[in-house]
């Protein structure tokens, strides 16, 4: 086996071993994530793609519930 192949095989073994541990760690972090930290994280991610300054009220209300209510309204006969 070439040194390059041995290095690749070792890299693959490390990631194969680390994958389940990383997934378990991620699940554990999400289980204990507070609403406040979740909002801060989503705000940080969304701020990477938007160029428009969003209002502080957006942190408490997105309009999604109202939007879903409108989508589920039955049309008048």
Condensed summary:
The protein is mainly α.
How would you describe the overall organization of this protein?
The protein has 77 residues and is mainly alpha-helical. It has one domain (3-72). Helix content is 66%, strand content 0%. It has 3 helices and no strands. The protein has helices at residues 3-31, 35-47, 64-72. The termini are far apart. The mean pLDDT is 86.
pLDDT average, as an integer?
86
Rounded to an integer in angstroms, the radius of gyration calculated over CA atoms is 22 Å
Assign a percent range to the helix content. Answer: 55-70%
Q: Biggest β-sheet, characterized?
A: none
Q: How many domains, as an integer?
A: 1
Proportion in β-strands: under 5%
SS content category: mainly alpha
Order of helices and strands: HHH
